[in-house]
Amino acid sequence: MAVNLRPLSLVLRPWHNPPRPWWRTQWLVVPAVVAAGLALGVGVVAAASRRSCPALVSEGGTIEGVRYLERMRGGASSTDAVPMVILLHSLTGSPEGYASGMNGIGPARLILPEGGYEVGSGSSWFPRGIKTTVQDGNDPAEMEAWRVAGERMARFVDTISHCRPTVGKPVVTGSSQGGEMALLLANEYRRMVAGSVVVNADLPEPLWTRRMAQTIWLHGTGDTTVPYELAKAHADDALDRGQPVTFESFQSPGHELTGALQSAWIAAVRDMVEQVS
């Protein structure tokens, strides 16, 4: 905000020219005026930020260019300060397709954002799946696309968590590509989240980091879409570096979620929500 100092100087200038008292010297007046202008500017920015937040009675909207749905769980109302769970849909999924999920996690605010790439009747988080990406040698251009997608979601997570009455930092979770986005946030933006719960998901090796947020990692042994062996190698590497990772294996015929995996997923999210509470 531009501050016009001239009118203020006219007010402060004496009508005659006696020696100025110390408190009217220019080196004190100007900083005071600038400080007042900065304070006013901060107030305007804060007000603008509040205006950008959808109303608490809203069931969704768009923040930072990301469309999302919002649902309450465990009997909580929209104005309650409760933990936030950000549920990230899988490839070709949508927020609407997941809006009835995550029952049994306790009082929480469920946020369901939409991926940035249109795919069929839904969307995806990344331009290509991890198996193809790895087979292509983790091309640097593809790695950059994954990082850009992560930055998009990090901006959303940061804004939505400040727009809502929230206890602690948000928990991010998802399966398949949704789990990969959750895992990317736990790696690249670990200070922004309380932790992640990921199912049948992994990251290309160039995106592995030396530190990550608390992560509960669930994976089916028969998964070849997001190969079990790759995920296990990543988890073992994180554990060898002393990272707060719990990796659990489940018998499965493929990439699809079994009943045991789904039950373990809900239980893991509930446990993390209780830790945040």
Largest pleated sheet: 8 strands, mixed
The figure for the number of domains is 2
The third-level CATH topology of the largest domain is: Rossmann fold
Summing up helix and strand content along with how strands pair, one would put the structural category as: alpha/beta
Strand order within the widest sheet? 1-2-4-3-7-8-9-10
The CATH homologous superfamily name of the largest domain equals Alpha/Beta hydrolase fold, catalytic domain
Q: Residue-averaged pLDDT, rounded?
A: 85
Radius of gyration: 24 Å
Low-confidence stretches: 1-51
Question: Would you state the CATH class of the largest domain?
Answer: Alpha Beta
Principal-axis shape equals: globular
Using the 3D structure, state the CATH architecture of the largest domain. Answer: 3-Layer(aba) Sandwich
* Run of helices and strands: HHEEEHEEEHHEHEEHEH
Strand proportion, as a percent range, falls in 15-25%
> Treating each run of at least 4 consecutive H or I residues as one helix, how many helices?
8
N- to C-terminal distance: 40 Å
Give the assembly state of these chains.
Answer: single chain
Helix content: 40-55%
Number of strands: 10
